[in-house]
Amino acid sequence: MIECFYQKPPTFHFFETKTDKIALQKRKEQIKNELSKWEKAAAKQNVQIKTKFALTDSIAHWVIDYVTENKVDLLIVDYPKLSMTESTLYDDIINTIHHKAKCHVLTTKQ
Question: Torsion-angle region of residue 42: left (phi > 0), alpha (psi -120 to 50) or beta?
Answer without folding.
Answer: alpha
